[in-house]
Specification:
The structure holds 2 protein chains of 2 kinds.
Chain A lengths: L34 H7 L14 E4 L8 E2 L24 H14 L3 E6 L9 H14 L4 E6 L4 H10 L4 E5 L5 H7 L2 E4 L2 E4 H21 L3 E8 L8 H10 L4 E6 L9 H5 L6 H12 L16 E2 L11 H5 L5 H27 L16 E5 L16 E7 L4 E8 L13 H11 L3 E5 L5 H9 L3 E3 L7 H14 L7 H6 L1
Parallel strand pairs in A: 1-3, 3-4, 4-5, 5-8, 8-9, 11-14, 14-15
Antiparallel strand pairs in A: 1-10, 2-6, 6-7, 11-12, 12-13
Helix pairs in contact in A: 2-3, 2-11, 4-6, 5-6, 7-9
Chain B lengths: L3 E2 L18 E2 L6 E2 L15 H5 L6 E2 L17 H10 L6
Antiparallel strand pairs in B: 1-4, 2-3
The chains are: A alpha/beta, B alpha+beta.
Chain lengths: 497, 94
């Protein structure tokens, strides 16, 4: 199949890196989108890598029912201490969801996006989902509404979605091949029957593709999520990426399978392995030749609240919001001020990035290899987190002329802030394992013990750039290493030495 | 004749709107079927709708307590692993 490639600006596989100051993460993978789409998504925390440092989102868990089974999902979703899609603490009625949304919007003015993402499928709960959207579009017109779906009921829901002014929809598409689909979806519920295996997967795939085409033809923006399942759909996702782009999806988010035995999912129990961070990066790079890739997704809970990577859900439980009085008219005035301030800051940063820079000709510089640098950050685009407190590290690939954001690596914090550092050794081992491929780690502070272990593992810790902007710090660190001649040889030779 | 919902129910609401007799009520912790209203969908559908969509094995049972979706029938997980997970909360891989 011949497919149009709108843009060649996507970064090349490692070794290529950025070719100009306007690529890579700056202002992330959305740079080449047409203006009318970019203006819609550039301030959306779940679509824009840049915006997610400033704007927050929340999910309300009003949609518990599902019409399909996925092998990475356990429908016993009542769990409060895990962070992954499909997991929530309390399912809400539309009324409770509206109240919670208004309370959060008043308390966290940076919250601009309300999504319904489960814990089942929002469109398999049409009454609850659309009642929530209808009321919010009336009562809180300054909040963007989003929905994510498995796509089975999408074609019949498109009119209703358009009515509620929802201009972003996420469809999870893991395959376009029913044989592969049967390995991911054991059954679907369709026209009053449970349909197993290839037959069910075929119907699901048809409905997903039809829904995608219907949405894009009506100008509704579509992001596609795919779960990378090693040995099942990993190679195949390159094809999926091409097809969904050809049908008008604007962003593809390839996420790693989460499959722990403790979660009780089919994949978890059967020992299906998760992809390694480097395998995920390699697949995202392969797909990016045809498609804008999203790399900052945190695979958050179906009731997450706050900036991506943080969850403030505990502050807004049902009993707590019951006691909150919200004057939304007043809150909206305050929210507008906060949004304006953030927008001005972002616009200034974008203007600075767009400004021409004086750079040495590529030929003037010795050829240095790209490296991965990990960052401990609480947000704001700044290195402001202690190594021991970090629950995740942002990983960038940096070369002599630019950098790009590769993704985040989740971990258990090394230091829990009390006596629990006793477990530190095994936790540190896991953190180091999760940092596979990383050569430098920047944090606001790093303790003596982890410092030594990181060095031993070939990761250079560095606390000299505390509170600096990530982009400036990684540039400075790279240039320093390059000037010292440490980046002249290929990484493989160094590892062998 | 009527179906019943067991403690395995997770309260996901999938069955409730499908019932042609409005026999299902939301409950805490589990949903319930009004035995006076339930017809097991006879005359309306080939198969009882609640059991057709229910994602939880052994949550919907018939009058003698036999599950319409026995353990392993929906997820495909082998019985010995279902049992290991139910007793230990995880599965030890070799």
């Amino acid at each position: 199949m011949e497919l149009p490639v709108i843009s060649n600006s996507a970064p090349e596989a490692s070794g290529g890196g950025c070719s100009s100051s306007g690529c890579g993460t700056a202002p992330d993978a959305l740079g080449h989108l047409p203006d009318h789409i970019r203006s819609k998504v550039q301030d959306h925390p779940c679509y824009s890598e840049e915006a997610h440092h400033y704007f927050a989102r929340m999910h309300v868990a009003v949609a518990p029912a599902c019409n399909i089974q996925c092998n990475y999902c356990n429908r016993k979703y009542d769990c409060s201490n895990e962070s992954r899609p499909g997991v929530v603490s309390e399912v809400m009625s539309p009324e409770q969801a509206v109240k919670k949304t208004l309370a959060v919007a008043a308390a966290i003015p940076q919250m601009t996006v309300l999504g319904i993402a489960g814990p089942g499928d929002p469109l398999a709960n049409p009454a609850r989902t659309f009642e929530t959207f209808r009321r919010l579009s009336e009562e809180a017109p300054d909040i963007k509404l989003c929905v994510s779906t498995n796509g089975l009921s999408l074609p019949q829901s498109v009119d209703e979605l358009a009515k509620h002014n929802i201009d972003h929809v996420t469809i999870t598409i893991n395959t376009v091949d029913p044989e592969i689909g049967a390995k991911i979806y054991p059954w679907i519920f369709w026209e009053n029957k449970r349909i197993f295996g290839v037959e069910g997967a075929k119907i699901l795939i048809e409905q997903q593709q039809k829904g995608l085409e219907m949405l894009t033809s009506r100008g509704i923006l579509v992001k596609v999520n795919s779960v990378m399942i090693p040995g099942v759909n990993d190679e195949h996702l390159k094809e999926v990426s091409k097809i969904v782009k050809a049908k008008g999806a604007f962003l593809h988010n390839v996420m790693p399978l989460i499959a722990e035995a403790e979660h009780g999912t089919y994949y978890g129990i059967m020992g299906q392995r998760e992809p390694t961070p480097l395998e995920l990066e390699a697949l995202q790079d392969s797909c990016s030749g045809d498609m804008s890739m999203m790399r900052h997704c945190r695979q958050c809970r179906a009731d997450a609240v706050g900036l991506l990577g943080e969850d403030r859900g505990e502050e807004f439980t049902l009993d707590k919001i019951d006691e909150m009085e919200v004057d939304y008219a007043t809150a909206m005035v305050e929210r507008a001020k906060v949004h304006q301030a953030i927008t001005s800051e972002l616009e200034m940063k974008r203007a600075l990035k767009a400004a021409p820079k004086f750079e040495a000709e590529a030929g003037d510089k010795p050829a240095t290899r790209p490296i991965r640098i990990a960052i401990a950050s609480k947000g704001g685009g700044v290195i402001n987190e202690h190594f021991g407190h970090a629950h995740e590290f942002l990983v960038y690939e940096v070369d002599s002329v630019g950098h790009r954001f590769l993704g985040h690596r989740k971990c258990t914090a090394y230091c829990m802030g009390d006596e629990s550092c006793g477990d530190g050794e095994t936790v540190l081992g896991q953190i180091i394992k999760s940092l596979e491929g990383v050569e430098v780690l920047l944090a606001s502070k790093i303790g003596f013990e982890p410092w030594a272990d990181l060095e031993k593992a070939g990761i250079q810790p560095n606390g000299e750039h505390a509170m600096e902007s990530i982009e400036e710090a990684i540039r400075a660190v790279y240039d320093e290493l390059a000037a010292a001649g440490k980046l002249d040889q290929p990484a493989a030779a160094k590892a062998a030495a | 004749m009527a179906l019943d919902i067991t403690e395995a129910c997770v309260g996901c609401y999938a069955c409730e709107p499908l019932c042609p007799n409005k026999a299902i009520s939301a409950g805490n912790p589990v949903f319930t079927i009004d035995p006076d209203k339930c017809t097991e969908c006879l005359g309306d559908y080939d198969k009882p709708q609640c059991a057709e969509i229910c994602p939880i094995e052994a949550a919907i049972v018939d009058e003698i307590g036999d599950p319409l979706n026995p353990l392993g029938s929906l997820t495909g997980i082998p019985l010995h692993l279902i049992e290991e997970y139910a007793t230990t909360g995880t599965v030890v891989r070799n």
